Amino acid sequence: MDRMNIPTDHAPDPVNPNTDLSLGDDPWLRLCRELVKCDPPYPTETVRWAQTQREALTPHFLALLERVARDPAAASEDDANLFTWAYVYLAVWRDCRAWEPMLALLRQPTALLDELLGDMIHECYGRALASVCPGDVAPLRELAQDGSVSVWTRIAVLDAWRLRVQLADAAQAELEDDLLLLGEQCAAELRNVTEDDLEEIDTSAEYLLSDVIATAGKLQSQRLQPTVHGWFDEELVDPMTIGREDYDADMRDGGMAPEGSPANRHNAFVDDPVEETRWWGCWSEPSSAAPSSPMPWPVALSQVEDPAPTTYVRAEEKVGRNDPCPCGSGKKYKKCHGAG
């Protein structure tokens, strides 16, 4: 696998992006100034330009990943924003040195992960992990089995592991073993919970079981199919998160886009920084009627209400992938406005 041999021990820290510098800046200074803030319009030219600056930007990106992974609570807002660009570009460049700090971050508490990664933990982080994986998926297996980490961490690493099976050389049987184990653990927990109780307790088991089923479907695992059907028959699966018809469709086509249609980036390694970032809602122009508070960074364009350019801004907590959609449809956000 292609790896850069650039030392990162003494790489410069991010600079103040407001520093007045000429267009003759070194690449890191220009990137800090032009990409640290998330203001419309989408900076296509800068994002494409940065993709050509691998040698100059890599040591800075790696140093930033290592620093933030060591102490994410101490990361500044600018560091947090640049962190996303760092792992996206390193994933595009398949730089395996991003693997360790990216894994280390996933052991942080849910609230800290939500603050730093936002919706990207669902949209991109697992695929970025798969993109920089040096080959051994044992660390992914360890995190997937660790009940002490965030459920979103476990979902992200299952996504990364699946892609290593489908697009690289990881063994499907080992992943199927873990899916069966995790699924049965979740099912056992849910069998002792009434539907009313789900409103009052931690629903991590419900979320994780749904993702186990989705992963099994995308793998088109015949081995897991009878067990998955049993979970549906027992009504252990939230149909707002994944329905039997969704699972059956994945079993039929593996979750891949139909022939002749655009490729589904959710079933691919990270290859294009523009495709991975242009959906953020912060790139939309705010309307005069919109609240004065800024758009959370990054938030999906699917949270931007029609007619454009009115911007949806959450009033309370961040809308999670499996939370009720704020549009009022009654569906999970993932299956409604977050489906993109």
From TrEMBL:
InterPro entries per the UniProt record, alphabetical: DUF1186 (IPR010602), SEC_C_motif (IPR004027)
Q: Which intervals of the chain are annotated as region Disordered?
A: 1-21, 319-340
Q: Which Pfam families match?
A: DUF1186, SEC-C
Compositionally biased tracts (Basic residues) = 331-340
Name of this chain's protein:
SEC-C motif-containing protein
Q: Native species of this protein?
A: Sphaerotilus microaerophilus
